[in-house]
């Protein structure tokens, strides 16, 4: 599938020049969305910025492990249950490390090199031939050229062929595009990879031994209640009070559901539950969340599977 980037109709789009190199195209196409800052590579400082700028609670040990892997030239695999922050934390760490907004590649089975490295604009290729002029760079190549990080999300959803393609790029730190007779090499160490995966998710493929040999694996899990409490407080974005005893009850509810229910709510669900309850309180003219707001919000946030409402109701009844 080809989608025109920066091109309109049959002609060349605004800013497009026929003699443009791939590097110039990358800057023109992606430059506007990639924010540049000083790279931050000190784990303690990264933890501080993850909290203040990205509103993420991440412990220093995890950040240090990722930084050590990057320094050793290894990609990192974040593996763990849904809603534990793998994607957001990965993207934020890569962005701080490189000093540039990270590129995110959401995997699906149809992903191939044309979707991530580049392809040809059909009309331009017809007019100008399959060469650098009609070539459209895609995110992986753009990240290598800009020395930015790449978050490959849900790697298990991709094919083994695609995983091998990524490993080859990571190992050699270069991308060859034979059609335009060019080799692109990474120039800095900003170009790093974090993969995410949720092994418990159904209908996902296995990761090959070759893949696992290359990456270092960082295990994510549900945070202890004290950390999850901090996360909810940090993420509560409405000026409505959430009383401490209600937050404690919420944490007991999600903890119990993680033990008893098939759908196990992650911190992402706890945060959403608090946010919706706080908005309900506001709509009802209250300045603090009540038990009723929490029960009502739970009915849209925690009821995920048909037939599991009873378990959720029982746990709410017991703990709230
Ligand atoms: N450590 C954390 N700090 C702050 N927020 C967190 C944290 N962990 C989880 N969250 C909450 O979860 C959301 C991020 O979840 P994210 O999508 O990154 O999880 P995930 O592990 O990638 O989940 P999935 O497996 O479903 O893709 C945040 O928007 C926030 O509400
Ligand atoms: Mg994710």
Number of domains: 2
The oligomerization state is single chain
Which molecules other than protein and nucleic acid are bound? adenosine-5'-triphosphate, magnesium ion
Q: Let me know the largest β-sheet.
A: 5 strands, parallel
Average predicted local confidence, pLDDT: 92
Low-confidence sequence ranges: 1-15
Strand content: 5-15%
The name of the CATH architecture of the largest domain is 3-Layer(aba) Sandwich
Number of helices: 14
| Rounded Rg | 23 Å
What is the molecular shape?
elongated
Distance between the termini: 51 Å
In the CATH hierarchy, the third-tier topology of the largest domain is known as: Rossmann fold
SSE succession? HHHEHEHEHEHEHEEEHEHHHHH
Tally of DSSP β-strands: 9
CATH level-four homologous superfamily name of the largest domain: P-loop containing nucleotide triphosphate hydrolases
Task: Output the strand order for the largest sheet.
Answer: 2-5-8-1-9
CATH class of the largest domain, named Alpha Beta
Q: Specify the structural class.
A: alpha/beta
Q: Helix amount, in percent? A: 40-55%
Describe the structure.
- The structure is a single chain.
- A hairpin with a 4-residue loop joins strand 6 and strand 7.
- The protein has two domains: 198 residues, P-loop containing nucleotide triphosphate hydrolases (Rossmann fold); 95 residues, Helicase, Ruva Protein, domain 3.
- 47% of the residues lie in helices and 11% in strands.
- The chain is an alpha/beta fold.
- It contains 14 helices and nine strands.
- Helix 1 packs across helix 7, helix 10 packs across helix 11 and helix 11 runs antiparallel to helix 14.
- The radius of gyration is 23 Å and the shape is elongated.
- The structure holds adenosine-5'-triphosphate and magnesium ion.
- The site of magnesium ion has 4 residues, from helix 4.
């Amino acid at each position: 599938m080809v989608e025109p980037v920066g091109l309109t109709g049959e002609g060349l789009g605004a800013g497009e020049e026929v003699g443009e190199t791939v590097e110039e195209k990358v800057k023109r196409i992606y430059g506007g969305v990639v924010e540049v800052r000083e790279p931050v590579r000190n784990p303690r400082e990264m933890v501080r910025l993850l909290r203040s700028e990205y509103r993420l609670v991440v412990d220093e040990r995890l950040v240090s492990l990722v930084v050590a892997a990057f320094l050793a030239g290894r990609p990192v695999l974040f593996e763990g249950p849904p809603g534990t922050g793998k994607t957001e934390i990965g993207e934020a760490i890569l962005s701080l490390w490189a000093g540039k907004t990270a590129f995110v590649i959401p995997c699906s089975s149809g992903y191939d090199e044309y979707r991530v490295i580049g392809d040809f604009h059909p009309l331009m290729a017809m007019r100008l031939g399959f060469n650098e002029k009609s070539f459209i760079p895609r995110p992986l190549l753009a990240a290598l050229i800009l020395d930015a990080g790449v978050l490959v999300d849900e790697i298990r959803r991709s094919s083994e062929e695609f995983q091998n393609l990524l490993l080859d790029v990571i190992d050699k730190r270069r991308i060859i595009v034979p059609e335009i007779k060019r080799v692109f090499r990474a120039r800095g160490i900003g170009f790093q990879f974090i993969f995410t995966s949720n092994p418990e998710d159904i209908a996902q493929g296995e990761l090959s031994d070759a893949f696992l040999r290359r990456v270092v694996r960082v295990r994510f899990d549900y945070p202890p209640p004290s950390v999850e409490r901090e996360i909810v407080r940090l993420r509560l974005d409405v000026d409505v009070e959430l009383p401490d005893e209600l937050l404690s009850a919420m944490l007991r509810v999600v903890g119990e559901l993680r033990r008893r229910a098939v759908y196990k709510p992650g911190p992402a669900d706890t945060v959403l539950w608090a946010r919706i309850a706080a908005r309900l309180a506001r709509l009802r003219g209250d300045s603090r969340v009540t038990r009723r707001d929490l029960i009502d919000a739970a009915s849209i946030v925690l009821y995920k599977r048909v037939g599991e409402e009873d378990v959720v109701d029982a746990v709410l009844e017991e703990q709230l």
